[in-house]
Design brief:
This protein is of the alpha/beta class and 309 residues long. Helix content is 30%, strand content 25%.
Amino acid sequence: MPIKIPDGLPALKTLEAENIFVMTDERAVRQDIRPLKIVILNLMPNKIETETQLLRLLGNTPLQVDVELLQTATHVSKNTSQDHLTSFYKTFDEIKDQHYDGMIITGAPVEKMEFEEVDYWPELCEIMKWSKQNVYSTFHICWGAQAGLYYHYGIPKFTLEEKLSGVYIHRVMNVFHPLMRGFDDKILLPHSRYTGTHRSDIREHPELEILASSNIAGVAIVANKNGRQFFVMGHAEYDRTTLANEYLRDNLKGIHPQLPYNYFPGNDPRALPALTWRSYANILYTNWLNYFVYQQTPYNITDITGFEK
């Protein structure tokens, strides 16, 4: 089954070229089926790139997925045109009376700031509070995962000695958890961040479970045991060259970061990186959509009820 996206979204041509089954609004209205309603709060600066990455993974499923894109109203994007945002994005005021089967909250390049210093933090808190009542299952990514753990559970982030960048091996901690079905005992996952979360802080909350962890990269995947919240510290959605582009960008800024770990063949930044995590990313998103969105959400989406931590 296809993923349904707005007519004219730039990701359409890329996904169709990759044989991802995409359906536009015009065609979808002729189908008598209730699709899964997924809203993506896109906090990343290059929104078109992130849209394409996430839609690629959401489209790799037999379920029909209806995607809406959400932006913050209290932050002006500097890297995405206003025409694109006006054409394809909504604000929280436009959707706050709706219900969704699932929600994705992306990362954001604001890790070095305290949460309360981020200009859209009050708005994000309002959205995360709303998600507990109006969304069945929420999938938080990277800084979005750290923000979710901090807002919902008071779990702080800590600053790393240097940027964590690369593709890391993680051990699956619970092979029988539905989100981990189909994974090998060890999985690969890209990370790109300056901050982390202590395992000990997460383990103080019995309602949370660590599902994947790395000796080098630390905690990678955390779940609320009720299946309503997931926190993924890495970027499973990243393309082959995303880390390379970030490395080049940081060098041009004069930051001179370390080479991304376990990424460039022979540690040669001129070499084309191998795409070693795509299969794990597909399984991760497919499992989330299947076991925690499709199989759990009420058919009448307005019957979604809130939950306690």
